[in-house]
Amino acid sequence: LFNFAAGPATLPEPVLLKAQSELYDYQGSGMSVMEMSHRGKHFLSIIQKAESDLRNLLNIPDSYSVLFLQGGATSQFSSIPLNLCRSSEDSADYIVTGSWSDKSFKEAQRYCSPKVIWSGKADKYVKIPDFDNLEQNPDATYLHICANETIHGVEFKDYPVPKNKGGILVADMSSNFCSKPVDVSKFGIIYAGAQKNVGPSGVTMVIIRKDLIGNAQGITPIMLDYKIHDENKSLYNTPPCYGIYMCGLVFEHLLELGGLAGVEKMNKKKADLLYQAIDESKGFYRCPVEQSVRSLMNVPFTLEKSELEGDFIKEAEKEGMVQLKGHRSVGGMRASIYNAMPYAGVEKLVGFMKDFQARHG
Ligand code: PLP
User: Which top-level group of life is the source organism from (predicted)?
Assistant: First the structure.
């Protein structure tokens, strides 16, 4: 079965098999990772190795902290303004390229005075702005982007240089985290929910420049204060232990594959195959996103004969390709092809698409 879900999404088979083999008795400890104290030696070595492997994968400089948190990427929509802005009057710039950056902007309105400096809404979110023409506010505390819009399939291929006073760029990388190499030093904060590329839902990763920690507004709930989690090495309270263990197995697996440059190459190959099939269908299938910013992870497409979309999804499901329905807000179809989707899965989908077109075109 090939699972094209946008998240929680498919995980690498070797990772699931390793977890299965260690489920009942983790490395001779006599316990499952689920049963262990988060302060015991086994779990401490699990979380430390997960952090060190992630640092290797993304080449994270020592001047950044890595936090394993809870509450999903959604809780970061609040944590960011609460930790970076000193009061509700401080401003922040938001680039809105789809539903997720729109949500993060709306949540920021509760804790600071954010401004949308560019929005793709009028074009139905199919573009990334031209960085040279962006009017950034020099007094903004930070510039926020969503590096990959999971619903609309729009991905930043490069990043705007922040022109605010602290030079702070914040990126939601939930749906393309660890899908390609990233120069972490360009960012003040990178955050991501785990459930697309790196593990089960429930774990949220935050990579933050150390000098940005320790300035939270007085009203910040303790669980959203980066300083608390940094000082306690993500163990202030009971962390999502099993989820962190699973993320650690995925990081190990990605390193075994040779790191993120190779992972990106594979992701490009898969995405190229699918976009090419869409573009060569002579309009039978259509992807609305501008070519240069099409996501390598989430591929939305529609059928010219939209009345056939239900049949497309049902027939694909019968052939073992599930979760191809587009997000309820945009309709159509969406194939999410994260790291763990094998090339064979995309080949099968493309074969099915051609056959469906031959029957209905
Ligand atoms: N940001 C992006 C880009 C997402 O795709 C999602 C979820 O799918 C979120 C944020 C919200 O993440 P969570 O459900 O972990 O809060």
Answer: Eukaryota
pLDDT digits (tens, 9 = 90+) for 134-180: 999 999 999 999 999 999 999 999 999 999 989 999 999 999 999 99
**Does the beta carbon of 150 sit less than 6 angstroms from any atom of ligand 1?**
yes
Whether residue 175 has its Cβ less than 6 Å from ligand 1: yes
Distance CA 159, CA 186 (A): 8
Q: How far is the CA of 287 from the centre of ligand 1 (A)?
A: 22
Nearest CA to ligand 1 atom 13: 72
Tokens of 219: 């009203």
Q: Where, residue-wise, is CATH 3.40.640.10 in the chain? A: 13-256
Query: Which segments of the chain belong to CATH 3.90.1150.10?
Result: 259-360
Domain 259-360 sits in CATH at 3.90.1150.10
CATH architecture of 13-256: 3-Layer(aba) Sandwich (3.40)
State pLDDT tens for residues 223-254: 999 999 999 999 999 999 999 999 999 999 99
Q: What is the ipTM of this complex?
A: 0.99
The token pair that represents 106 in the structure block: 């709306």
Instruction: Kindly report whether the global pTM for this prediction surpasses the value 0.90.
Output: yes
Radius of gyration of the chain (CA): 21
